[in-house]
Structure formats: C-alpha cells, structure tokens
Specification:
By secondary structure, the chain is of the alpha/beta class. It has one domain: Purple Acid Phosphatase, chain A, domain 2 (4-Layer Sandwich). The protein contains 9 helices and 14 strands.
Length: 349
C-alpha cells in the first residue's frame, strides 16, 4: 500500500484517493523493483542495494514477513510485523519509496494455505494495518486483498495487478511420492470445480484487463509459468492456468508480464500460448530466504536458476518502447536479464 507521503510524492496528490480516481495520473514509472521472502529474524542487507537502485516503485510480492499462526490470537504474525518495523533498511524503504504489497502463505498465516485457513480474516486485518491501508480502502469491504493501480499518463501507463492466490484457492492435490523430482509436494489436479482466484476475483480481473494501459504487471505470489517442479504453482490447477491465459486473450490486453516470488530462488521464464503473444515471468525470491541447493528442470526457463539473495527489476525505456526484466543480487549486480519490446506484447488483429 502506498503511504500518504510517498503516494503524494509519486502522484502529485495531497492525499490518498479511491483507486479509480488514481488512474492515468502522475509521472511515468521507469524503475520498478520487487521482491519476496524476507524473514524478519534474519539479517536483511539487500535493502541497501535496493535503495541505491532508487526505484520509482517497490512491489512486495509476498512472504513479506514470516508469521505463521500457532495460536488463534495471531501472536506470531503480530510479532513478525513488529520486528519487521524495526529493520532499518525495510523501514527506510517504507518511508521513502512508493510501494505496493500482496501476501503469500507466511504472511497469510499458514504454509501453502488456501481457502480452508480459518483465521484469514484476522490476517487480513493485520495486513491492512501494517501496510497502512486507508479507512476507505476497498479491500476492507470485500474478501481477499487483491488490488490494482494504474500509474502514469496516457501512453506511459503501468497497471500493477496484485492477485490474491490464497484467500479463495482450493486445496491442492497432495503428491503420491513426497520429495520425488517433479512431485515434491503437489500434483496437477484437473478438477474443474477447483479455483485459484474464486469467481469474484476472476470477474474483477477480467474487468481490470480491459482498462487502458501500455504495460501490465500481474503480481502472483506463486509462480505462473514455471514448469517441471512439484511445489506450489499455477500448474497445480492446470484448468485455472489455462483460464488465466484465456482471460488475457479475451480481454485483448497487451503488455502483460508476470511477477512472482515464493520459491526461494530467482528465475526468468517465457511461454507463448496459442493465439497470444509471448508471456514473460520474473520470479524474485528471496530477499533473505534462499534455497541454495535448488536444482530443477526448466523447460520454459530463460537460463539457469539464481540461487542466492535477489531482487527483481523492471526498467522501462518509454522512448525505445522496450523494457528490461532482470534479477539483481545482494550487491546490486544484474545476474539474469531479458530485453522485451512493447510491440512483441500485443495480440495480432
């Protein structure tokens, strides 16, 4: 959530306003950073290179704290937010950089959790409190925390769509061979009754994608395009992944790019669905939680995994009509990158 001071600085507004009135206003974004998986009890030196990068916007892509429920009063989650609020780099970014946030499982309250989590309403209240959502924020009156912002003037608009892949998500199909390559925790489930976003959020997304924008960053805390592993991903509900592609295609939306986290590794992906332009995804994880020994197939991955602390960036060159999708390390050095032209992200007519 934008804080009052940083939102006003970005948008040139005196105070926060409903999301609908923010569209098509403010200066164009050129440097966007994002990341996920920041455990508050461990050192977080990566905030220094993030701040040195001087992003116009930072997106918290989930697991922004680790506060899984061990009691109904959410004592651990409350403590996690309190501890995060005392981390120098974290708080400096919150105070000086415009930012948006969505949750993943560990700030939702339970590992790999979905619709069945009984304390999600309390988690939502704590999330909105920590991210300083105003009293008239629409997320206070509807289920889940999905949200969308359009930033920039016509011709240079960036739409940031924050999906909630926890609140409504159906239970996943448990693996028949725990730990086996490609079957680590879950198996693809073709059950048509299962959902990733829920009917309400699906309808909202279809509407959002029809709003005018030149670049659309769809933030899903779990991976969208990644294949070849049995951890959480959209591929666990293949009909829902196809529905996402179909929804993008039916909307006519151009410029869609996915940003994700969750996995404790960094990676870039590209996939070209039938009848649609190439879809790119950048997974940035984690800010300080990393699976150093990660190895997995990557049939649509661009290069190897990056198994070290990282943050993602989207650098937009509006004059050249292109952007760079990249991962940077703890020193701020670029470790994975791909250039994408705006003209390649449109549906042929």
């Amino acid at each position: 959530m934008f804080t009052r001071r940083t939102f006003a600085r970005l948008m040139g507004a005196a105070s926060l306003a409903p999301a609908a009135s923010r569209a098509q206003s403010g200066k164009p974004l050129s440097r966007i950073a994002f990341g996920s998986c920041a455990k508050q009890t461990l050192p977080q030196p990566i905030w220094d290179p993030i701040l040195a990068y001087r992003p116009d916007l930072f997106i918290f892509a989930g697991d922004n704290v680790y506060g899984d429920f061990h009691a109904p009063d959410a004592a651990d989650l409350k403590r996690a937010y309190e501890e995060a609020g005392h981390i120098a780099g974290y708080t400096k970014l919150l105070e000086t950089v415009p930012h948006l946030a969505v949750w993943d499982d560990h700030d939702y309250g339970v590992n790999d959790g979905g619709v069945e989590f009984p304390h999600k309403a309390l988690s939502k209240d704590l999330f909105l409190e920590f991210w300083k959502a105003p009293t008239n924020d629409i997320r206070r009156t509807r289920s889940g925390i999905y949200d969308s912002q359009i930033i920039g003037p016509p011709g240079k608009r960036v739409q940031v769509i924050l999906l909630d892949v926890r609140w409504f998500r159906s239970p996943l199909r448990i693996t028949d061979k725990r730990g086996a390559p490609g079957k680590q925790r879950y198996l693809p489930d073709p059950d048509p009754a299962k959902t990733m976003l829920g009917a309400e959020q699906w309808a909202w997304l279809a509407t959002e994608l029809r709003k005018p924008a030149e670049l659309r960053l769809i933030v899903s805390s779990t991976q969208v395009l990644a294949d070849g592993h049995g951890w959480e991903r959209w591929g666990n509900l293949p009909l829902e992944k196809q529905k996402l592609v179909d929804t993008i295609r039916a909307s006519g939306a151009k410029g869609v790019v996915f940003l994700s986290g969750d996995r404790h590794i960094g990676a870039l992906y590209r996939e070209t669905p039938e009848g649609l332009y190439p879809l790119y995804e950048a997974t940035s994880s984690g800010l300080n939680m990393v699976y150093w020994a990660a190895k997995e197939p990557g049939p649509n991955r661009l290069g190897p995994l990056f198994a070290a602390a990282n943050f993602g960036v989207v650098e937009i060159d509006w004059a050249a009509r292109k952007f760079l999708l990249a991962l940077r390390d703890e020193r701020g050095d670029t470790r994975r990158a791909v250039d994408v032209g705006f003209d390649t992200l449109s549906i042929a007519t």
